[in-house]
Amino acid sequence: MGKASVSEIKDLMKATGVGMMDCKKALEENDGDMDKAIEFLREKGLATQAKKSSRAAAEGVVTAVVEGNVGVLLEVNTETDFAANTDDVRNFVDAVAKTIVEKNPADVEALTNTAISGGTGTVGEALTELAGMKIRENIVIRRFLRFEGAMASYIHNGGSIGVMVKMDTDLSNDQVAAIGKDVAMQSAALSASYLCREQVPAEVVAKEREIMMAQMSEDPKMANKPDQVKSKIVDGKVEKFYKENCLLEQAFVKDDKLSVQEYVDAEAKKLGGSIKVVEVVRYERGEGIEKKEDDFAAEVASMMK
Questions:
Q1: 101 burial type by CB count under 10 A (0-12 exposed, 13-18 middle, 19+ buried)
Q2: What is the pLDDT of residues 123-169, one digit of tens each?
Q3: Does pTM top 0.85 for this prediction?
Q4: How many CA atoms lie within 13 A of 282 on its CB side?
């Protein structure tokens, strides 16, 4: 049994939302293996489904733009919220998004070498001037995606979350825009891990079943039930897992009597056509970026003493 470090405890607390001493015990019981420690906590009923990554906040702007049959989802990070909300940064982000629409660069590196829309230099040159001469703090174009087809988008809270929805449809973009936006808002609000159950890897479902069985073995009311009874209970829990984690199976936030898929189908029928949601991409500002936390290690060390 190994001793858990402060940084390991910190990472496990962020990944699971579980208290410090339980995280310390889980790490020590599993020789510092993070994945096994997360499973240990879930099997004890202490942690919900593990987060895929730390979601410590970072500043910046997420934008989603649809022009005709082209859509762009873009994240640009800054050091401070103040900088992110300046007109200079907002105008730069808009120009970069328009550049991606017009020039279709392959990646961020190619984008920085592309002539910026409405300007005289490249995106990289505009970025250097903005960061060094005007804002005077680090600015990073973190990621973007460009889509073609029938699209709808949604931006939440001035750029904290952006979602792009791509659809296959025999209707016009104008007809499906509001429906697609509703789906995008659903994604922004509830952050489903998958679009539909067919996209959930078999190993993920198998691991969920394993953890659910372990949870029942820890529950005095369930531990002595026959295996076939436990298996049926787990089947029901897996269905609940799909409804919580697959966007199209979630209860629609505007009418929880319908799933998102049922809402889309009903609206398409009203319009006399078909709509299939084929891709949903959600960017959350600062997702997975670690911010400096000067006092955390001292605080944990003090509590452990």
A1: middle
A2: 999 998 888 778 878 889 999 999 999 999 999 988 999 999 999 99
A3: no
A4: 20
